Write the structure tokens for this entry.
Amino acid sequence: MHRQAAALCFNGAFVLGRPRMSFASISFRPLLLAALGASLLCACKPEPARPASSPAARVDGKAIGLDQVELLAANLPTGDADAVRRVALERLLGEEVLRHEAERRGLADDPKVRARLVAAERQVLASAYLDQVAAATPKPTATEIHYYYAQHPELFAERRIYALREIDVEGGDQVAQAVQDKTAKAKSVAELLEWLRTVRVPFSVKDTTLAAEFLPLGWVGALHALKDGQVALVRGERGVVLLGIAGSRSEPISEEAATPRIEQFLLQQRRAEAMQKAGADLRAHATIEYLPPFAPPATRAAPAAAAKP
């Protein structure tokens, strides 16, 4: 969710609003990679008990390969390896008997079914290519990791845990401007809340306690510069948001402890960039022709203009 920049001047503070993407969210939740359709985090796969080419079971003579079992097991909740494999196999057996019946009824020739099969193949192959691009992405060097640590004391050496009061104010540009003006003059969060009640502007209040790495990346540097009791003003999707620091405490992280997280963070950033670039480069060199009804208006009008005497 994007929160665009709005001016802030309250107790000497100035903050820019940024997308709600935190260091922790990139490190441990591959949102962008999932959106691109590539699962790039290492899954905890159970060790195969035999070669992947071996059949695990047969349904009416049709083999279900162990490789299919392992693939499905890798996406199931972790637990005892043998139990996870058995759950995966039972699910595949159920799907296989259904598939046999669908083929017997001729459903494979249904146009809608064929379209879904083509789409599934396209997605699988596209994802496989992105996996290959990501796997070829080099890991960050020790120098790069050290540089990132040194450049971001707000996340590591000077990391803080923030107790925040988040006040979401609803309204258009006039409300946003009024809140901004009042924020510049107010002496406390309590004064701002009382003013909001007086002018009867819809708002909600939420108290949260977050470590620096869970704050939006665009906020953490600015909040790091603020003192307890100061307030940041940022744009929100429905209006503006006031972020008051009710309190904070210092909990630094050493470079040694931070190194694995920084490495994962930088690697995932590089993988995302590499996949985006690969897709953009392939699209730029492909011959893409839009046909009706998707052809641009100018393209559709060209034949009609050429036909005029």
Remarks:
- Confidence is low (pLDDT under 50) at residues 1-19, 27-52.
- Strands lie at 55-59, 62-65, 160-170, 203-211, 231-235, 239-250.
- The longest strand covers residues 239-250.
- Residues 154-250 form a domain with the Chitinase A; domain 3 fold (CATH 3.10.50).
